[in-house]
Amino acid sequence: MTEHNLNRTSVKIYGQLYQMVGVESVAHMKDVAVIVDEQMQTIRKANPSLDTTKLAVLTAVNAVNDAVKLAAKLEKLERQLQKSKDDVND
């Protein structure tokens, strides 16, 4: 990945300004920042005594939990698709 392929944008998450750099589009990076901010706000409402570090860790744990569930679901669907293809070819 070279410097020329990278997009840059400023985003605000939980009241803090961050500079995001990545190969994804600026729109994508901003969408991700909005989702993270919303998740942090939601967790904060449910747990008002959490400090920012714990809030950020819980947000990350929830995001990884969602990613693991989606990966498992994708794997299951890919197996089902492969089985269907195998059944058609038999």
Per-chain topology:
Layout: E1 7-13, E2 16-22, H1 26-46, H2 52-89
Antiparallel strand pairs: 1-2
Helix pairs in contact: 1-2
Task: Give a written overview of the molecule.
- The chain has helices spanning 26-46, 52-89; strands spanning 7-13, 16-22.
- With 90 residues, the protein is an alpha+beta fold.
- A two-stranded antiparallel sheet has the order 1-2.
- Strand 1 (7-13) and strand 2 form a beta hairpin.
- The model has no long low-confidence stretch (mean pLDDT 95).
Helix content: 55-70%
In the sheet with the most strands, the strands line up as 1-2
pLDDT < 50 stretches: none
Residue-averaged pLDDT, rounded? 95
Give a quick rundown of the structure.
The protein has 90 residues and is α+β, with helices and mostly antiparallel strands. Helices cover 66% and strands 16% of the residues. The protein has helices at residues 26-46, 52-89, and strands spanning 7-13, 16-22.
